[in-house]
Every structure is written in structure tokens, then in C-alpha cells.
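Amidophosphoribosyltransferase
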Amino acid sequence: MNSVVESGGLFGVWGHPLANQVTYFGLHALQHRGQTSAGIVTSEANVFKGHLGNGLINYVFDQPETLAKLTGSNAVGQVRSATSDDLADDSNIQPLLFHFNDRSIAIAHTGNFTEGVTLRQKLEEQGAVFSSNSAAEILIHLIRRNKSDNFQEALEDGLKTLKGGYNFVLLTDDALYGAVDRHAFRPLVIGQFENGAYTLASETCALQSIGAKFVQELSAGQYVIINDEGFEIVQYLEDCHVAIEPMEFIYFSRPDSDIAGVNVHKARKDTGRRLAEEHPAPNAEMVIGVPNSSLSAASGYAEGHNLPYEIGLIKHQYTGRTFIEPTQELREAGVRAKLSVVESIIKGKSIVLVDDSIVRGTTIRHLITILREAGAREIHVRIASPAIRFPNYYGINTMHTSELVAANHTIAELQEMFDADSLGFISVDGLLEATNLPYDTENRGLSLDAYTGRYLDDIGGFRAEFDATLTPIQQAILEGTFVDE
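C-alpha cells:
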């Protein structure tokens, strides 16, 4: 992987006497978004303290005194998923903390800049010195090199320079900031405690876990300033429209989170119902889902097809999510370790196996193998995402065409490769209708880049690689001539 920063979870709090503990539990609720590293920075009276490390949040803060040392009523934190390129680079663990003569800034970031390499080179040519490979540091240099003495103006100018998909939380001496890109690819929500303190989080599930009330979700091209006076939302970019990354609904977010007012569990269940309409399995006797992110869609498929929903696969809860493991070898080992079959349930049965998506094909191949070994008579695979046939350049670990099995094979070829009795993906229209986002835009609130190859934001530095690696399937899709039965 060549991306600098991958998807993760962000959290911030302002004005809470237990900011360290609140941030710890907020990040714990967001652990599914990143499992490589974690960090927290707190502040009080212009004194900033931080602790960072590799591993899960409860491993990084495995001693009570470690968290207790992070005093202050304000904090930012991140859980992060690293790529293979920066797995061993501890300088990329966030939040990053910078001390300047006039202020200190702690910053954490998720996503990816499509012009990140070019922008970094330009800054270095102007004399900037980088201490990490994190894209978050690019924004810091843009802020500090701005001629304005007003931090808010410098922040706005810096954000306007960036292209791609990104979310930020920043903590300064006098305020907490949160920002989203021009399409709000990922959610960032504001919450409030009963004592008046405010919080920022990547998902609403984190608010629930710490007893905060949902206030508002940032929309495309907005940032928020939170201080002792309250909060203010600023529209720093015009000509914006929301285009949420569909993997937030399909895979990343917890089912108890809401995005743009739509509950993730409900969206997944409705996706399953629509999938049953589009791809019924007349001979099937039961439906099983791949734990855990596919269970809602599987239950929806079962209801839509009037079939029993069974627990046919068990996830070992103490293993990580294979999709965000940094290397193919670890992904394959993770699949073998994380799931087992309830043989007495599926033996001799014709089953529908519902999964959330197929990226590299590692998981589905292994699942079909172990289900057949356990005696499944027929396996009809149903996928609650359209076929992913184009790279994602906005912060998800699918940046190269060679990694996308559906970019190189038709559905009929995939069915044969996986040894499935049938294979069906939900349509793009089906996904749009199932999520039912309340936006009146041409793509109805979802980014469809990975399915259509038509990118909403300029892919800039990745354009040459994209053009050079187009497969016949991708080319036909872009030309509008591809038909996949």
C-alpha cells in the first residue's frame, strides 16, 4: 500500500473534568475503525500531555497510571489502521503534538489526500521539515506557513488547499476543532454532556458509550470550533454536496450508529431485503451471515425471502478484522483464525451465505471451503455491496486495481473461482434505495466511485497509475459497454 493514512476513528472533548477517561471510552467504542495504534493528548492551561502506542486502546493504556497522568479538561484521540508501508513507523501514531512559540497544536486525521505527495514535495522545497509520514502534518505546515495571524483563517486556507477524503480533529490552547472534506465522505458528529462539555466523534455509537447527547453532524465542507463559549459551525467550502463513503454503511460503522439520520443496522437490513428481491435463491433452505458486519443484511435477506435465519458461522471475538489487516499474509491467517462453522446447522443443507463485500476474495474463498467441508449441500453467495471494481483513493485499503478481484473477473468467473453454486451482488440502484439517505443530489448521498470509476473529487497524483492499470472490465465500465450477467 502506498497511502499515508488509512481509515481510523477520531475523538475529541472540550471542557470535561474527566477528559482522559471520556476519550479512552470514546476510542474504545471506535476500536473497530482502527486496531494498529492508539493515542490520546490532553490539555489544561496551555499544558499538553500525550501518550501513544501500537496496539488496541486497552493495550496502549494497560496501566491505570498511564491514563491518570493525562490531566486536563480537553483532549483529542485516535485509533488508527496502518498500511504495510508505515506499520513499523511509530512517528505516524496520532495524535501528533506540535509546540510553537505562540501555541501548541495536537492533531489527528483519517482519510487520504489525493495530492498528498505533490503537496508535501512542494512544502519541502519551500523549506518545510517533516517529522513523520502522516498526512496530518501537511495541514500543520500549511497553517504555520500562512501569512495570517488569525489561526482560524490559516486553518481555513489550509483546508481549502487539500483534496481528497479527510476528517480532522485539532486541539489548541483555546479551542477544539473538527473538519470534514467537501463531500463528507466520513461522518464526524458533535455531542454534548449534561455538564455542558462538548465532544467530537467519528460515529454516534461513541456518544452513546460516554453518555453524551447527539447535537449535529458536520456536513460537506464544514468545520466546527468548540470553546468555552459553545460551538460554531463554519462553511469553509462552497459548491459541496454530501457523498458518504458507502463502506461506512456496508462495513466500517457499528450497527448502532446513525449516519445522516439513517441507522446503520436498518440500512444493512434493508440492503439484505433488496438483495433478496434482486437475487433470490429458490432452492435455499436457510440464510446465514458472515459475522459481524453482515448479520443485519443476512437477517434482511431472510425476511425478504421468507427463509429461516440461522447462526451458521461463529466469530472468535478476540481476533481482528481481516479487511483492515496490513498485509495479505496476515489477512489470510486472520480468516483462518477468526471464523468456524456450526456443522450441525448447515450439514446437508442448501444455504444462502450473505457477506458485506468482496474486495480481494480471500475471505469468501475460505468460507466456501470450510462450509463445504462441513457438509453444506449448496452455497448461494449474496453480497450486500455492488461489485467493487475501482480503487478507493480517499482512505480505504483498496488503492490498487490488482487487489480488486472483481476488477479482473466477471461475476460468472468469480462464481467459478469461489466454487459457489450461485453469486449475486446488490445493484448500485438497490444500494442507493436501501440506504435511503435524505439528500437531493445526483448520487443521492453516496459516493459510487468504487463501483463506477467516476470519481467525485480529483484523484490527482493517482491519475497516472489509474490510467496505466485499467483492466478490460474497468475500461468497458467507463465506456458504458460492460454487461455482467
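Residues 1-6, 320-324 have pLDDT under 50 and may be disordered.
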